[in-house]
Amino acid sequence: MRFFKIIAVIVVLLVGAYAASMYFFVDENKDFKIEKEVDYPIDKVFSQFNNLQHFTRWNNFFTSSPSIDIDYYTPYEGQGGAISYVDPKNDTDGEMFIRYENPAKSLRYQLFEDRNENPTVVDVQFKAVSPDKTKIIWNVHTPKLSVFRRVENFWTEDRFAENINKSMVNLKNVLGNKVEKDNQMASIKYDSLMVENEENKLLLGINVSASNKKEALYKNIVMNYSKIYNYVTMDLGKKDDEFGFPILITDADNYKDKEISYFLGIPLSKKIGVPDNNFSFRTVNPSQNYVIYYKGNYEGRIQAVQQLIQKAKKDEMRFGDIRQTFIERPIEGQEVNMKLSLSVFK
Asked: Domains of the chain by range and CATH?
């Protein structure tokens, strides 16, 4: 009995010492600042922060768990925007609000975690470093913690910083795809032959052999694009602004063949595990291309392809594959809007 009393006294003393040290030497809440820069204009960056549907697509706090379920409340954008979330796997839930917005300059978020009545308050400032570069500044004020939970303040800043680092990688991928699409749409000049240097791309897609009979090939492309799109968005959980335009790669002069083999894929930023053997990755190496934009029925692309081949022959250039980039997703019964690229070399 005496032994247990001694143990009890020791435990009480240790708890008291812990509580005293937390009370006198550890702040009840924490304030810190984190700064980052991204190579995109301030208007495009800000729109990813003030729209919570965009925000949750790249912020690691929400993307890191596959089991998280998010509900969005109107207005989805700007002051008054709100979400609630539940993550049964990690046994967490909470609510997030945009309490203040100064367009293209600053936002204030409040995050209530696990029914805590005291929120984490995050003030985010946006500063244009140049027309194509933005500085993002997070000023974080954590909620007050009880004496026994104040030890959490030792790793709060590191955990928040790690989340921002991962989020910035996701944000750059999202903005990269979005800006690339916007720039391509803005630079389109139909039926004009141009020369472009194309960077390497990583495509996830499928290899196909299909009949080249009238309309049969395009129907086959539409069907296979739907397979790839559904796999990328539903099975892999990617959003539309996380990947690029679909690209079809085939021999440049096989439009006369009875059967055509092609690879159709969607550009992704990095390789990921793909358990379905029907899909594979293909790397498109950097190349110099003769390019022409075409809009019309799919069969009509042949004339544009012939223009590219004739140009290559005239310039005494050898050529490789033809790449058909669908600026608008292929839909049966509708015209195509595409970029045709013929890789050329001496």
From this structure: 26-185 (3.30.530.20), 194-345 (3.20.80.10)
